[in-house]
Amino acid sequence: MDDDTIQIVPVLDLSNLSPSQLQQKIAICCSEWGVFQIINHGVPLALQNQIRDAARHFFSLPTEIQRELLQADPFSPLSVFTGLKNEGEFRNWKHTLGFKPNPYMNTNLLPCILREPFVNFREKVGSLAHGVAKEIFAGLQLNADLLSDIHTRRQTMTVNYYPPCPERNFTYGIRPHSDFGSITLLMQDEVKGLQIRKGGNWIDMNPRKDAFIVMIGDQIEILTNGMYKSVEHRVLTNRSIPRISIACFYAPAEDDVIGPLGKFMSKRTPLMYRAVKFGDYLNHGFSKPLNGKSNLILSTMECH
Ligand code: OGA
Ligand code: NI
Keywords assigned by UniProt (predicted)? Predict the structure, then answer.
């Protein structure tokens, strides 16, 4: 493809594709892009707006109040994190509200401004993610049982709030990285900033409020021994408008050991990644700054 051609990340309309067309299109997107968008996905717009509004409201509160709201319950699945400081190493210019389920949490104790939108949205997007993952697996002729066996983890969700950044080129909203899990479903607002990498080019993900972006994560790259690649992406800062995105991470359980499946190995495609417990992969990834797809290279290096 000519470098100067404007490329647009494919959009799949879930309402007008037969199951086999859908599987086929998803397979093409996964091998050529590692990312695609879905529309007519069944998540009501009202629910999308409701969670965006709740997130905006939450981030408009003073930091102290935000923390107080979350501290009321010691088992709260919510946590808030600010990455705005620039201490030597560039940090991400964003605030994060994370939702990580735990066995003791009681969603009735969530702050009332967040409770309903979070619980409803997560449930809807969680089943959408499972449906998309099923199509990806089916397109690879993989047994659906395998998907259910290794994806028992209750999904985490992150609300990213990118405040305006006073200095252009100062840092990133989020540094280049690939996501650690299997797939990510991401909802943007109307503000630009997200870019995905294809070959040597960074391509703008132009906002589409009716779409979810589906990104292939590292665990799918590992399972398929590199046949499908996780997509590298980043968010640029902007000087005037805040940006909100919500990411749902569909991933294996932390105790699951994920390695390349035999089906994807041959003389021509020898083993590329070491099998690692997903929890260890996560801890390793979170212990250092985001840096492109360096986690996967490390898996290869540890192969020796
Ligand atoms: C992420 C991410 C992109 C965005 O949360 O992993 O890449 O648009 N977010 O906020
Ligand atoms: Ni990401």
Answer: Iron, Metal-binding, Oxidoreductase
